[in-house]
Amino acid sequence: MNDYSITILTFIAIQAIVACGLNVIVGYAGQISLGHAAFFGIGAYASALLTTKGGLTFWTALPLVILLTGAIGLVLGMPSLRLREDFLAVTTIGINFIVESVFLYVPFFGGALGLGGIPSITLLGTRLRGPNFLYLCLVFLAAVLFISRRFTRSWGGLACFALREEETAASSMGVSPIRFKLLAFVLGTAMAGLGGALYAHLMRFISATDFGFTLSVSMMSMVVLGGIGTLWGPVLGALILGVLPEVFRPLIDYRMLLNAAILLLMIRFQPAGLLGEGSLLRRLFRRPGRDSAHE
Amino acid sequence: MQLFFEQLLNGVAMGAIYSLITLGLALVYGVMRILHVAHAAVYTAGAYVGLYVFTMTGSLLLAVPAAMAACALLGTAIERLIYTPLLKYPPFVPLIGSIAVFLALEEIFRLVGGPYILSFPAEFPFPGITVRGVVISPAIISIYAVSAAVLLLLWFVVTKTELGLAMRATSQDREIAGAMGINSSFTISMTFVLGSAVAAVAGILVGIYFNQVYPTMGAVPAYKCLALIVVGGLGSLPGAVLASLLLGVGETLLIGYANIPLPRDSLAFIAMIAVLLWRPQGLLGNR
């Protein structure tokens, strides 16, 4: 593999990590978030600032970054998650716009010039680059997938499923809606923070426009395309949406249109996504008699 | 003082334009409970069709109805082809569908109309007024006159006509309204016709006021006006107008007089979050 495809794959792995985080919020807890890029950005800026101005290494900064992003998720989620669904969608869009403009206009965050000079990651004395950086991202992706899977089997995850399906019934059974929605929100935003930290040290230069609302929409597209609430859906979605622009490079002028059209067709005809319940792929590859008990 | 009044007039004009766009969103949210992000693409389409017909014929009197008709068609097409089939899913499904339609249409505008800013060289057949040194341009006068007329017309349709009654009934409870003999799918389509035609008017007004028509002119209104319907109280029409006027004036005066470090467009969202914390049902909403 050449450097170019390794870079593309590294981006895809990072986006998959962030999309998995979004999937916890949207897929598992059923809470719409259209501001996920804001938390991706918070992670990136936190790691960049801690390593450049704070003098920490990537490894010592990382736990702080994840905690910080999760904490900001907690603070922003607390008032937002009490709102009705539609309010939440608009509020998260608002959070994205506000966070982006804070990065862009506050001199501490580098303003319009962005933040540069972010050190690369070193492990056991060697600088990670190229394929090694990709392996690191894949290890983190595996960890995120493992945590997601553990979450779906945990009490918190089951509570989230119950709330997603029928909030009134679940809360009458003693499942606190706000508590478990917040749990999912914090977990999801912390994953975005991890992705952000990796992104900052891969790019070594970040600016506010990297974390705009458009990115939140493409994160959402990845989750929708792959399958909302499935374990591997976000990874598949990130892979497809990451590879497609490369395949259709000759059609670069139509790229955005193509992305929008894919999202539209998917949501219109296959809202469960490629790997979701009752999707074409599932029906095609189902072993006879196995999944039928669910339907 | 002169400058202050001119700023105020500009602010109210911006607010009036916001309210024309936001009303469509509030109407749609009322009958369908969908956040119609693609409404801003309908508004952009209005500006483009208006400009096209204006360049062809040189007449605003032809351009406005043509744009209204085209947008009414586009709006109902979005409703029929995308929203109605998605109503049975959780609300974020049609919302994502709406965002996808918005992005796709924006790209189509760019591919068809070109990525550059087109000018809208319309002249109004009457002069501006100067009151005690405060200059009121013909564009501002037309924005005031047209918005007032449209708001009155909408108020009349919604409160005094049978269609308005059907719209209010459908927004209260679609199924019961259906059981009472209201053709709710027709009512919803008519709501889109109405909202989209008003958006076309807003698109043309903005195009002339700023002398600019460009593919992404809907990007800011798309989300800002969502914040406005939330501030106003989801589905509340007077609330939508009030929130729009407050934002138009607030934005213009704050930018002119206070040295705030944040960009104009994030104000709407900060105001929205503040209002939601203080009054979660919105300014004029009821639970």
Radius of gyration of chain B in whole Å, from Cα? 19 Å
Average pLDDT, all residues of chain B: 87
Physical arrangement of strands within the biggest beta sheet of chain B: 1-2
The greatest inter-chain interface is formed by:
A-B, 40 and 42 residues
Radius of gyration of chain A: 19 Å
State the major sheet of chain A. 2 strands, antiparallel
User: What's the average pLDDT of chain A?
Assistant: 83
Q: Sum up the overall morphology of chain B in one term.
A: globular
Class of secondary structure makeup of chain A: mainly alpha
Helix run count of chain B: 11
Shape of chain A: globular
Number of extended strands of chain B? 2
Individual helix count of chain A? 12
**Portion in helices of chain A:** 55-70%
Strand order of the largest sheet of chain A: 1-2
Termini separation of chain A comes to: 43 Å
Description:
The complex is a heterodimer of chains A (295) and B (287). Chain A has one domain. In chain A, β1 and β2 form a beta hairpin. Chain A is built from 12 helices and 2 strands, in the order ααααββαααααααα. Chain A is globular and about 50 Å long. Chain A is mainly alpha-helical and 295 residues long. Chain B is an all-alpha fold. Chain B has one domain. Helix content of chain B is 75%, strand content 2%. Chain B is globular. At the A-B interface, α4, α9 and α11 of A face α3, α4, α9 and α11 of B. Chain B: Belongs to the binding-protein-dependent transport system permease family. LivHM subfamily. Chain B: It is a multi-pass membrane protein.
